[in-house]
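Inverse folding, one chain.
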């Protein structure tokens, strides 16, 4: 049995790390432009407040920012994760990653249903799961059709990545809560993108412009829950 050269293995790991970093940067850029309504100047103002380390928090925030779009994504991700886990068999250390992903998607789904009663998410997930099941069954009868099942099981990560990028590009609500900020000069409705000592950098809800608010002028702040 021949062993893979150490240099080739290192190059493979480097390529995977580079690809992950590239996807993270692309996600950041899509979110940056989406929340600013693709305005160059506003996006430039926010660019310095985020980094690659913020991707995990931004992914979670993006899923939760828009309940409806988050529900659409979950309706696709839930049956995908369930089918993949069924194909992998009983839970074990070898499929712990997918099992963790399935539990995460299920937790998001339960929380969304409990909060907003968006029952159509379950219906859509069941319909997508049924369609995939029928396609798999038809593929078993036709040897050439079985390639779709094999592709689907190998491409779960691609499906998740495409869903994440789509949400990043179309969800205009930022990854932080909408706030009513009471100031001495009136009410500001927007998202606090940065909170350094002495001032707030706020993205306004209506115009999607960045404004700087002196904390000395703020008399109150109230978070606004997203609407389904």
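Residues assigned per position:
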């Amino acid at each position: 049995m021949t062993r893979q050269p150490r240099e080739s293995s290192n190059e493979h790991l480097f390529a995977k790390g580079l690809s992950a970093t590239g996807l993270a940067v692309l996600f950041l850029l899509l979110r940056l432009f989406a929340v600013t309504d693709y305005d160059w100047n506003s996006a430039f103002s926010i660019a310095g407040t985020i980094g690659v380390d913020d991707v995990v928090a931004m992914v979670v925030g993006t899923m939760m920012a828009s309940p409806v779009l988050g529900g659409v994504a979950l309706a696709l991700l839930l049956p995908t994760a369930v089918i993949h886990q069924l194909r992998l068999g009983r839970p074990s250390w070898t499929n712990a990653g997918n099992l963790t992903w399935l539990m995460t998607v299920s937790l998001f789904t339960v929380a969304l249903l409990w909060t907003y009663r968006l029952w159509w998410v379950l219906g859509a997930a069941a319909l997508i799961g049924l369609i995939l099941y029928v396609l798999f069954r038809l593929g078993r009868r036709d040897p050439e059709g079985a390639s779709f099942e094999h592709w689907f099981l190998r491409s779960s990560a691609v499906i998740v990545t495409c869903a994440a990028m789509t949400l990043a590009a179309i969800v205009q609500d930022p990854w932080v809560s909408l706030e009513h900020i009471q100031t001495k000069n009136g009410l500001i409705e927007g998202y606090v993108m940065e909170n350094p000592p002495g001032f707030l950098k706020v993205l306004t809800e209506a115009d999607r412009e960045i404004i700087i608010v002196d904390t000395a002028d703020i008399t109150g702040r109230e978070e606004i829950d997203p609407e389904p």
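The chain has a mean pLDDT of 82. The two ends are 58 Å apart (CA to CA).
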